[in-house]
Write a structure and sequence with these properties.
Elements lengths: L1 H9 L3 E2 L7 E8 L9 E3 L2 E7 L5 E7 L24 H11 L5 H15 L1 E2 L9 H7 L1 E2 L1 H14 L4 E9 L13 E11 L3 E5 L4 E2 L6 E3 L12 E8 L6 E4 L2 E5 L5
Parallel strand pairs: 6-7, 11-15
Antiparallel strand pairs: 1-14, 2-5, 2-13, 3-4, 4-5, 8-9, 8-12, 9-10, 14-15
Length: 257
C-alpha cells in the first residue's frame, strides 16, 4: 500500500506555465573560504568566477531555461554498484519507483518524486543522515534526503552524487546565516550519458536548480566559517512546470521533444 501511494504521487499531473527565460545572478564572495568557489558547469547551469580587487570574487550564475535534451534509455544496463551497502528493501523500493520508465529522465523524475513523497524534512541535525537511517525513519534534512536520493538512483543503475554549496534563502529559513544570505545546503547531480551531469534538489526540483544555488568546487568537510556572500544583481525567472505532491512541490525541468 505504501509503495502504491508513492507511485500515485509520482504520477501527479504537471501544471504547465506560460513562459521561460534564463535566470541570472551575480554575487560577491569574500573571506578566507571564498576559495571554495570555482568555475562550475553542467547541463543547464554555469558558475563563472572572476577575481576582484581586495581579494573578493565575483560569482556569475546562469541557469538555462532550455529543456533537458537527454534521450538516454532506461534501464541503463549498468551493473549494480558494488560499493553500495546491501539492502534488499531499498533495492525493491528504487525499482518500484522507477517502474517501467523508458528513459533515464523518466526514471529520475519517478525516483525523486518518490523520495519527496516518502521523506519529510526534519530540522533535527542530531539525526543520522545516512541512507539506511533516513529510509528507516522517513525523516532527514537536506544532507540525508540527498544521500538517500543518490543511493536509490544508483540502485537502478543511474550515476549520481551529492553537491555542497550555498542556497540563498529568506531569513526565516532553517539554518539561515546572515553572512551568506542563506544556508549551507546539499543537493545532487545526476549523470546522463548523452548530456553530462545535471543538478536536482530532491526536496524542491528535478533536473535543474535556480540561480540561488552556488556550488562549492569540492566537498567542505567542516562548515565554512570565513565566508561572506552578497547578491548584487538578479534577472530572469525559470517558469518550469510544477509537480504537486501531497507533502512537497517540485519544479520539473521539461524534457525536449
Amino acid at each position: 500500500m505504501r509503495l502504491r501511494v508513492l507511485l500515485l504521487a509520482a504520477a501527479c499531473a504537471v501544471v504547465a506555465v506560460s513562459s521561460r527565460a534564463d535566470e541570472l545572478a551575480i554575487y560577491r564572495a569574500a573571506g578566507a573560504d571564498a576559495g571554495l568557489f570555482d568555475q562550475y558547469d553542467n547541463d543547464g547551469y554555469s558558475l563563472a568566477v572572476t577575481p576582484r580587487q581586495g581579494g573578493e570574487l565575483e560569482l556569475s550564475v546562469r541557469v538555462s531555461a532550455m529543456p533537458l535534451s537527454s534521450r538516454a534509455p532506461f534501464p541503463t544496463g549498468a551493473a549494480l554498484d558494488a560499493s553500495l551497502t546491501r539492502s534488499a528493501e531499498r533495492d525493491a523500493f528504487a525499482k518500484t519507483l522507477a517502474g517501467d520508465a523508458a528513459t533515464q529522465a523518466q526514471a529520475v523524475e519517478r525516483v525523486l518524486s518518490g523520495v519527496a513523497s516518502y521523506v519529510r524534512y526534519d530540522t533535527d541535525r542530531s539525526r543520522r543522515q545516512d541512507p539506511a537511517s533516513v529510509f528507516a525513519s522517513r525523516r532527514g534534512h537536506c544532507v540525508g534526503i540527498s544521500e538517500l536520493a543518490v543511493d536509490l538512483l544508483r540502485r537502478v543503475g543511474i550515476t549520481a552524487r551529492t553537491v555542497q554549496g550555498v542556497l540563498r534563502t529568506k531569513p526565516d529559513s532553517d539554518g539561515y546565516e546572515e553572512r551568506i544570505g542563506g544556508v549551507f545546503h546539499r543537493w545532487i547531480e545526476v549523470y546522463y550519458p548523452d548530456t553530462g551531469f545535471v543538478f536536482s534538489d530532491p526536496s524542491s526540483s528535478i533536473n535543474s536548480v535556480d540561480a540561488r544555488y552556488v556550488p562549492f568546487k569540492s566537498r567542505a568537510f567542516e562548515r565554512p566559517r570565513q565566508l561572506r556572500l552578497t547578491q548584487v544583481e538578479a534577472s530572469g525567472r525559470l517558469d518550469y512546470p510544477v509537480r504537486r505532491l501531497p507533502d512537497a512541490t517540485l519544479r520539473v525541468r521539461p524534457t525536449g521533444k
